[in-house]
Amino acid sequence: MSQEGSATAVQANSNEFVDDWSADRQTFHVPWGKAMMWIFLLSDTFIFTSFLVGYGHDRISTAAVWPNASEVFSLVIFGQNMPLILIAIMTFVLITSSGTMAMAVNYGYRGNRSRAAALMLITAAFGAIFVGMQAFEWTKLIQEGVRPWENPFGAEQFGATFFMVTGFHGLHVSAGVIYLVIVAKKVLRGDYERGPRGGNYEIVEITGLYWHFVDLVWVFIFAFFYLW
Amino acid sequence: MATDSQQHPLKIYFLIWGLLFLFSAFSYATDFINDGYLRWGLILLFMFLKAGFIIAIFMHMAWERVALIWAILGPPVLLLFLIGFMVYEGEYTEMTRIDAFTAPPEPVGLEHH
Prior knowledge:
Chain A is mainly alpha-helical.
């Protein structure tokens, strides 16, 4: 884009911004459910950031040695020691589920109910696999003696922050699986065909916003908790 | 653009999907880099790229009106202050812990005047 073109685009954007906020009418020209989901996700951003900042503060302030994540989260597969392998697989599972969710939104707006519902159920299945692998990871660490107050690898704060951060994220994934299954069932049953706004599948996009957010949070947990 | 439904060709989703896979593989690969700054630079780079693509394309933020974009992406800027304060505070706490709870090292080869 030329310099002049981008300046015009900025001008158009700021005009639109001022118009939307000063029109004494509805500010956000999106379905109310979508605006509310975004505002919920904004509040959730603050909660997750508080957890991650709390973790970061604990880790910075402790004088003890922090456990090495790539050793703690390694698995021995076929006699090979694989650092962080489970976390890598969990990451790919979650990204895959984000892709199927994006496709579900697309088919929802096309009015292809059965395909949208099927893709949402596939997304939920990937989410359930993710939670299952997290349960496996927790079990392994608990068997190795990791507790919220102590662990055999180093700083005591490790267990507390690990269970708190990944547990809160896992709860979000679990809630998302239930949410997806409920909405998929309603889509399949044709609930959204009825009423004055019938045939509108923005609900799939709203559900998708929540699901992508869960994936988004995992991006930050992956970087700050597992790779640091 | 705004009240229209968020209907986009599937192609762009597949492209972003592929990129997310690629960046995840790259950030996993950083585990094998020993240089601290390079490793950290790459981890943060891939993290922000992944987060940006998820928000912009999968969550359709790139096609929303500016009023919504600012309302949602503006407030988290405040969190940068929280992060900054807590890093500063955390380093101070660590210093006082080392100061108070660990024995001072014996001076070696120092003459007392």
